[in-house]
Fold each of these.
Amino acid sequence: MAERIWVILTGGEWCPLHRLEPWLGLATSVVACDGALNLAQERGVQVNVVMGDMDSVGAEELKTHIKKGGEVQKLSGQNDNDLAKALRQAAANDVERCVVVGATGGDLHHAWANLLECSRAPMEVDCLGPLEVHRFIKPSKKTSIEIELGSVFSIFTLSEARGVFLHGAEWELNGTTLGASSRGLHNRATETSIEIEFEAGQLFVLHGYFDD
């Protein structure tokens, strides 16, 4: 059975469209967080659902979305942002992976809030930035990342990750416990893929794009 993937569009700085297009082809749903619907329509990206408190989406954009058969889910509440609401809806729909666009760039406060929400999400999350990817991976599952030989990447946690194994890198890890520190900064790939696995906690990989 195909992996359930949501592409979630937010209002920060988007990656180039050619990096998003392959994910759009795989997505089971494309979700715009509130005003990101405006950006999607400007870029010609078809949205299935717009979610959020609807305080920044344009009236004409919303009308066009509905006219094309798009769904609207108004989710109120000021204790979290629209990305948090969308990730919660993804979890409720048993989505296995979310690809988030526009989480970073723009306002630094929003960027930190978005990354923290991605770190809390129960599924794997890839945040596509203008120049970089934040890949939030999950424990008890081996993750392989295709990478250019010699490329620089970093592994971080916002809390703690236990039993971390990393192979295919200049500085490998064998059952290490990582905390929120600079320890995982600027590692280097010694193979064309790196393999990461950890037992418990939370972990993300920060790397650039490798297909230029």
Amino acid sequence: MTAMSAQLNRRSLFLFALYDWANSAYSTLSITVLVAYIKRLFPDESGVLIWGWGLGSTMFLSALLSPIAGAIADLNASKRHWLAGTTLAGSAAAMLMFLATPERRWLLVVLFLTTSLSFELAQGFYNAFLPEIADDQQMGQVSAWSYGAGYVGGGLALLIALGIFMLGDRLGLPSAGDFRMRLCLLVMGLWWGGFSLPTLIGLRDKKLPEPRQPIIATAKKAIAEVRRTLVHVRRYRMLATFLLGFLIFNDGIQTVISQSSQFGEIVLKMPPQEMLLLVLMIQFVALPGALAIGWLADRIGQKPALMVCLSVWIALLGGAFFITSKTQFWGMAVVASLVLGGTQSVSRTIMGLMTPKKRAAEFFGFFNLSGKATSMFGPLFFSSILAFTGSAHFALLSLLIFFVLGTLIILPLDVKRGQREALSA
């Protein structure tokens, strides 16, 4: 590798990790401040259902759109443009949440749905850059470091939000009218959009675009490409096996992330400030956890490392049913944070290893599809059980089935065979 190519590679790796740093502000502040604000404006069961069903519906819609948009991005070598459009739309909607006062509570719902959908769509285009900027040997570490950067960035955004709540009086911030909550949502959008700009400007598609065609013709061709991929999915049997397992266990992970704050609030009566501290702890513990799992995967293999993570999740969810104190809940959060980033990082690496590079955006569109198509069921299931039974313990225990079933499907996975299938494409 020449000095110039090495420099360009380091630059791409930095820009890739920076985007994780940027968008993690939405990941952390949405599950703490945004969900609390929604439930404050929509009390009783309606807030629980708006949050759960809103996440579920936007995940499902992004699952339908991601493969088509990914195929279009591949044809035109325009992943960067799609990433920019979805990122700027989502961050702008998040900033506008500052205007969603209690008198405009339905504006908050519209902006929440817009931001959530934009975030989910952006993930597919972002992940599709991974096979282009890292080779098979680098991919695991790049994925782990980018997730680590995300935990630090999300943690710092949480610190700012915590400062707004705890130091608001000293800073002269109004305490009435939920001003501080809305200010945190403004920070969420500014952080996501602002820190994404270097990535959106500097990261480039490496594939040369095909001759430009009208958008309708491009969409038709993209649909044909997606249909062809579905027809020939048997050629990528290991990839299909992984996607099916990921579809299920990732539903459980995403639901734990998005809904566990409700367990702390309802069962343990934890205020938003304490939930911010809990999620802040998760962010910084997850960083060494993600790096440790990446190190482990390099030594024992990506699949064995994933199986270790899934086994921990199964034990964790089984024990969560018996949690009755804040100390136990904090202990559960520590264990979850140690495997949270590792599970996602190893999964993204396995996907990258078994993905044909010339169709990266399309296949990562399917990765997004796999992650989101049924991810609607976890939040819907959790929020419905919680709303109609009032038992957060049963709602959390119900997520165990996602991890058990996903693990059983992943058992026959052969990553080496999946790599051979990708190279033969």
